[in-house]
Amino acid sequence: MSMQPRIEEVSDSDSDPSEMDPSDFAPSSSLINPSDIPSTAQSASSMAAARQSQEAALASQRAAREKTKRYQCLYPIYFDSSRSRAEGRRVNKSDGVANPLARTIIDALQSLGMPGAQIAFEPAKMHPKDWANPGRVRIQLRDEAGRDTTGGRVRNKHELLHKVAAYLKEHPTTEDSPLRLRIPGVPVPEKEVPAVQVPRGWKMGSILPLHSPALSGGGVSEDFFKDMMKEMQGQGGAGQAKKKDKKGKK
Q: Would 238 be classed as within a structural domain?
């Protein structure tokens, strides 16, 4: 039996359909023989079956999210040395790192050797102050009865943050790090990961996951950032660097 903690991927959307090879589609098969046209009763039955399957999938996702609500959450921003405490950092600045990624946080948790601790990864979840770096990791430190699931390796979240930060220090993010996380439907660069163009006055990592909204379309415009700022004004911060008030200063 494997002693590695199990990782569950929690998603808010259905998985992408499987890819089809163009050679699988023959023009001769694009015409439907009248005898092959399903009856109304068959169509209704198929629709009902599809609806039941979708409802079952949604119920499974809801159950997974409900199960992980008691888990401890870890966002990359918690370990970002470029952020202040007010901007989302949760560890000492000296323990922070540049460009932390959720994928490396998973590696850190696995390295701790906690066979009873369940890990859940939510690739699309974002911290409200770090929208450009998606990915939330949840870890179960105690079960529903309050029993320790870490084998005594982690006593509380403070110690968890410290141990994850130490791992991130020893495994710094490189330009190739985003390639270690593949998301269905997100194209992988053929040559190299595109460089992030950070607009003046904004705080975001210079290395981001491939599914980051800041990388979609080959970059983002100033208008995109203005729209994002408006949308996030009521969400407790938008990841913009604070400007110093120079009034009265010479």
A: no
